[in-house]
Amino acid sequence: MPGFHFGSRLFLVVLAANLASATVHAQDPVATLPKNYTVALDTPSIEVMRVHYGPHEKIPVHDHTSFATVFVYLNDSGPLRIDHAGENAASVTRPPTTKGAFRVSPAQTERHSIENLGDTSSDFLRVELKQSALAMKEPFRGKAPQSLGENQDSLEFTDIDLQIERIICTGHTACPIKVPATPSLLVALTPLSLATGDPEKKEKLEAGAIFWLNPAQGATIVPDPASPAHLLRILLPAAAGQ
After folding, report:
1. Residue-by-residue DSSP string for 119-149
2. Model pTM score
3. How far is CA 162 from the centre of its chain?
4. For residue 140, is pLDDT > 70?
5. What single string gives the DSSP state of each residue in 14-83?
6. Fewest beta carbons less than 10 Å away: which of 105, 144, 227, 236?
């Protein structure tokens, strides 16, 4: 072929091999570690993964997307050792977590292996934000409430592209929640019932369950007879509902 030299052909072959190698070595945890990572919800705006690390379990190297992420902790668990691979290889220890706490992390590429150092499992949700560029450099950590004895409806994190609201409903009286103009994800931290239309038609949510609310969609929470209702609501940009 005129103008096409062997050196150019060799370069293209090497480039194609490198791209293929990168694809092969990218470890999607949902595909390679289905016992530890499962997809609970996937939309154009967010992907919600359920994550489970057994006591003292070692999780091999895998990759995560570079989206900003909200971690919602579903149980009291011990520390994890996280061994980051790649150019910025380093080992860090995630401290013990408390049920109902959360962490908001800015966008970053993750490739790591994990070891659960605790005697209990570590269970949490990983909510990846596909349409939210958070204006933050350091992670934000939201603490679990010390008591569920009083009603609460308050913002605990706010950013131009994200808000996180904690809701507690006590007693036997239903609690209507605010109707936002943006879509939101509800995360039940205790068993509860949720009504989005007819108050007599309620959907039971177990602890750890999620529920998607469309923009301007109202909802009423009914506590379980055995415990107060406790949930987090992750409010997303208006465009996320489109």
Report:
1. SS-EEEEEEEETT-----SS-EEEPPPS--S
2. 0.86
3. 13
4. yes
5. HHHHHHHHHHHH---HHHH-TTTEEEEEE-SSEEEEEEEE-TT-EEEEEEE-SSEEEEEE-S-B--EEEE
6. 227
